[in-house]
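Collaborator request, handled under Task 6.
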Amino acid sequence: MRAWIVPACLAALLGCARGARPAAAPPMGPWVCAERRAAETEAGGGDARVDAAESVLMFQTGNEAESPARPLLTVPGAAADGERFVVEVRVPHAAPGEKRRFWILPGRAGLKLLDGPRVETEGTAPVRLRARAVIGGTVSFVVEEIR
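Structure tokens returned to the collaborator:
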């Protein structure tokens, strides 16, 4: 008569163990450097005051699904000493007329953007920047969005 108690207890424990697991939290997206008006941010911390109309840089997080279309950077694989080349920036999945601003930063020492580091794209149209390799080697740049 007591033989049924052990299997019943095991079934109850296994059932509780399966149901007791919490749901997995959604993964947090990457940190993104964003440019905002000071009036749009939460007030707090720090010793200095910033005028509400000024732009401030801050970090924010977001899930990949909420992130806008990512920019695509096209560069040559390598460049010789003093060689000039073109860096192309475009956002392949941008909406027509959508304007986006980016900082393009050299991925290593010895690379220089001749047109400056700031670029604005509109829609999917590419923007070409002139660049030069002061020191030859692999060409790499980092793209950071200005929001």
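The cover message to the collaborator said: "The chain is about 10% helix and 40% strand. The longest strand covers residues 99-106. Please let us know whether this matches your experimental observations."
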